[in-house]
Target: Gamma-glutamyl phosphate reductase
Amino acid sequence: MNIKEEVITKAKEAKKAAKALANISSVLKNKALLAMADELERSTEEILAANREDMDFGRDNGLPEPLLDRLLLTEERIEGMAQGLREVAQLDDPIGEVLEMKKRPNGLKIGQVRVPLGVIGIIYEARPNVTADAAGLCLKSGNAVLLRGGSNAINSNKAITNVLAKAAYEAGLPEGVVQLVESTDREAVQVMFKLNKYLDVLIPRGGAGLIQAVVNNSTVPVIETGVGNCHTYIDSEADLDMAKDITINAKTQRTGVCNSMETLLVHEDIAEEFLPIIIEELKNKDTLVKGCSRVQKIVDNIEAATEEDWATEYLDYILAIRVVNDLDEALSHIDKYSTKHSEAIITENYTKAQKFLDLVDAAAVYVNASTRFTDGGQFGLGAEIGISTQKLHARGPMGINQLTTNKYIIYGNGQIRE
Amino acid sequence: MNIKEEVITKAKEAKKAAKALANISSVLKNKALLAMADELERSTEEILAANREDMDFGRDNGLPEPLLDRLLLTEERIEGMAQGLREVAQLDDPIGEVLEMKKRPNGLKIGQVRVPLGVIGIIYEARPNVTADAAGLCLKSGNAVLLRGGSNAINSNKAITNVLAKAAYEAGLPEGVVQLVESTDREAVQVMFKLNKYLDVLIPRGGAGLIQAVVNNSTVPVIETGVGNCHTYIDSEADLDMAKDITINAKTQRTGVCNSMETLLVHEDIAEEFLPIIIEELKNKDTLVKGCSRVQKIVDNIEAATEEDWATEYLDYILAIRVVNDLDEALSHIDKYSTKHSEAIITENYTKAQKFLDLVDAAAVYVNASTRFTDGGQFGLGAEIGISTQKLHARGPMGINQLTTNKYIIYGNGQIRE
Model:
């Protein structure tokens, strides 16, 4: 079977499975999710063996250490995947919920019912745990899923998908609800981009390059996820202790994630007081600081931040700092460089807080809190499939509700249009 | 200025205007909408003169009569456009509505506020009234709009846009909230397809060819609208009088619209009784009937319906009829040929009605009513920008709420992530 045939055959099977899955009871879906979790744990040895092949291949091919770490599976990580599936089983089933049924003057009862999207294509990079996470969320929301993971994780992904698909089928779900594209050739992704007939949506999970490739080439509707060049603005009227804690948390609590801070904007009135303190703290946390010329004047030995720095999502222990004249200059900076993910103001001033909330265009806008909270779990949505940075369909953390659509249902008794 | 420059310049201005428009009060937006309505009426002569140029050009170039009719403006139609703007002014402002603000265990107050999409690109065909309708809906929902109408209507569209833009600006809206691409070259549309930097969404309004071109070529997110190959299934347990009235209404009340019926499916048990009656009625309404072989056996002189007929959105006084063995065969037919717009079952049987509602995958699924009701006004949404036949973001009639997105706003008091 050639690459194109493989993708189309699997997408077709997924489409067929999706039709059957759309009306399956929560009881059966939850039973399948729990069986998948159990089966993952029972298959730990087999999955770890497959993962060792990927790790060996990755090491031989000089995969960088952070990527190897993402690729690595351990007994604990497999338990984590199983636990994730069990948590998804606990979530309320979104499917079938009727929103806003109203009676019209002519007697028609018109409502909207939540239904699955259909087949969701997920294109992701090296992390094999995405395989189980995405499959669980898609199934719970009544969708079939066509997975396409990174080539580095192909053996791990095959092992995990085989376990999940078998457990789902044996628990009573239709055959084909979880499919993995096994071809690691790029052509496979190109085929997925044009499969409007079988795929209802594509969700890329990975770096900016992957996301741009999907957005630029897919005719299937895409939900963009994840790039976060996040800012925190410390206002002249900030509580500086709070500002310090939030800055350290947003930058250093975890750096390789999209909701971590990349640029700190500091009001000029407090720059002389605040910068020496915060830069000292950041250095204690092994964080490299780059600064604008005004930062360089206040603190010695600061590397110059360039235009490129303002636009960079470091995902690392690096922070760009800029001194601004006022809130308006902070807003302009954010407007220019933000990827519209998460932005925060630290201030005790009511009017400035409201202005920031009103004027910043981003998925999540914070007053006096760390941007690190932009996360499905933290927002109370349960597990998340990703964080949308686009405006259509879903914005911000996407839980299972965001993997659904609505259809209008209309109960009549013979109404015709005049 | 070349074509590309024109489009980019206007899109850029629209983006700038959109930022200002996003936080403008309802009072000011409504004032502008009413001023636009008044100014349209005051400029009737000038708009009609521009329209005469388009009509003359269209006639000289052999534009078919139905297209000329869509292109034609009259005093009454201009009043209709003005009235439409006044109705949009009456709608509640969707912007700023806070949905579901909740307090999390850590004290963060997390809510979602409804905000505009930004800049909406509308690509449409010959009907110049779309210019005013779309502009009104976009402005009310806080969006700037970049319009690109059909070349046949260019003079009418220019005249209408000039009037609207001037009135909006004089009423106090930012400059550039309503823009028309004046180049009638196809290159202009190609440029719009790739303007992700300035356009937040593209909405095509027109025939299947236009919609497909936009879906296949745009990297800007698209909301697909409108193609409706709608079915009505008359069950063996239908009230046949009701079935007759609904069939006639769905097919003949207005034929050139996407929610009219194109194929009638009739259960075999009632076919011999129902078909002669309904075909007679349809003929009285000048409707050409095409039928499957079973229809041809029951009624004389029926043209054979081909595979192509089942897939055709006639938008005309033509109806394809097929006799089916049962509900399942009707569901399979709909599943195969439906464009997922509007589908109806006529039955007195409760279980079959629920099964149809559950299993049909379409924007609107009806029991015992005409598919002609799929319309923003009829559904109680106020005016509509189109009917989405896709699943992402919006499905079915799209009113002003569907021209918005959300952003999360988070009120903290120093929270950091553990």
Q: What stands out?
A: The mean pLDDT of chain A is 95. The longest helix of chain A spans residues 3-21. The two ends of chain A are 56 Å apart (CA to CA). Chain A touches chain B through 68 residues (CB under 8 Å).
